[in-house]
## 1
Amino acid sequence: MEYSMNNASLIDLKNLTLEELTEFLAGMGKERFRARQIMRWMYGRLAQDFEAMSDLSKELRSQLSQRARISHLVPETVEESQDGTRKYLFRLEDGETVETVRIPMEDHRCTLCISTQVGCAMGCVFCHTGSFGLVRHLAPAEIVNQVCAAMAEAPVNNIVLMGMGEPLHNLDNVVKALQILYTPEGFDFSPRKVTLSTAGLVPEMLELGRRIRVNLAVSLNATTDEVRNRLMPINRRYPLAELMKACREYPLQPRQRITFEYILIRDTNDSEQDARRLVKLLHGIKAKVNLIPYNEHPASPFKAPAEESVSRFQGYLLDRGMVAVRRASKGQDIAAACGQLKGKLTAAQSRQSSVDSSSPEHSSKRGNR
Ligand code: SF4
């Protein structure tokens, strides 16, 4: 089976969309409605085995356990920041690790930031995960199981695919995971509550728009190809003009906007000319800009922007009628940004005690993408 992870003869039902589960059960001669029932158990009630599914006959439960299994994740470590941000590290069945971050919002709601790959191939220079390179894609089950594990602890209101990895580099599995998240009998997330962040894989962005509804965030971080090539190597393949064209073509619902993440780095992308170019770049796009001042740290060549440049930059955008929000970094004291906890473990495992990989490598959770 394509996604079986432990035992090749058992299919992990968490890898299946409702349609696929229905087909799987039809292959066993079972009724269609059983798929909805099982979805409800796996995601609505977070059941981890067939035994718990008390409205299925004993016979069906036993048949299922001979052919299938239900995977789940248990956090290996959980760190909590002073601001309430919680970072979970999950060990996968093959020993790899991913992290997930729960970010409390002002209105007592919470956003869950999930990973889609182990490592990442995009190599953005401001990102710790990028420095590991890509190890592998996550299966749909491994993506949705991050949500299951967090939900087992407390409700989750919004989901952002903004953790480790470039979601569009793992498009098929990500689309499946979104379908599972949206299934009414499962988590029943509204697509309005889910945001996918990309570094700018243009063809996949357009395909995503054709295949499924989801809010789109683009990690922009520069207004010229010269600077963006330096910060984000993907720009050499899909330069700004192509990226902006794809954004203009991305299907949006009424009142929906594309979020542009912009990490402000001193003397790199924080000038008034940058603000002016940004307004031009986003002309005609229903956009919202998240401005994230970079958090400098000793191991990074980049510097935090001066307070006046952040205000000037934001003011310039606001004066031109743009939606521009300054984002506060969350969970800095626990390094709640993609790759940092993994970095810490890797360092510990290789006994490089002199490496302090817990120091903040990123500007913020959002600043990674
Ligand atoms: S910022 Fe995102 S896309 Fe870039 S290297 Fe890091 S995880 Fe990958």
## 2
Amino acid sequence: MLKEIGIFDEYNLLIDALRGRGAFLITGLETPNPMTIGWATLGVIWGKPIMTVLVRPSRHSFFLINSHDEFVVSVPPPEMGKQLALCGTRSGRDCDKFAECSFTREDGVRVKVPHIAECLMHYECRIVHKNNVDSTRLDASLSQQYYPGGDFHTIYYGEIMGVFKKE
Ligand SMILES: Cc1cc2nc3c(=O)[nH]c(=O)nc-3n(C[C@H](O)[C@H](O)[C@H](O)COP(=O)(O)O)c2cc1C
């Protein structure tokens, strides 16, 4: 059973996951694909609750997130380290990560992208803006550290349509 909660109510669960082994970004409708992410922000822009996620062009998730205007971020329980490692090293181009991790697809409530039912909490988002990390404006040491080979992230701004927690 899912319970809708306030958008910022369980912020600590998301931050703990991001500062630990990561969370799952799910994109795609027909063949949804979970990708491990370590970077995301949650806040208010344009008077709306917004989650930003960053995806490099080399990811299969990049193709999927650009094909639809929605994404879900599912926050895992602490014991999901193995699945986070798999979804952070294998590509959905080469395998079905939902099947590899024995994840259950759970329908989104306000978006068409599904959740991972085994996760604790789900942010359902609709993309309202995107832009690229711009090397000419990025701090030089960050540029060297994170983009020696280019592959600059695109930043996606998702209006949070609802947050749902497993009861
Ligand atoms: C802890 C962790 C955090 C990661 N965070 C991101 C991220 O925020 N953005 C990104 O583009 N890739 C990130 N990655 C790398 C992708 O998860 C990885 O390249 C994945 O295999 C891509 O899957 P896909 O090709 O199915 O999209 C992260 C990997 C790990 C292990």
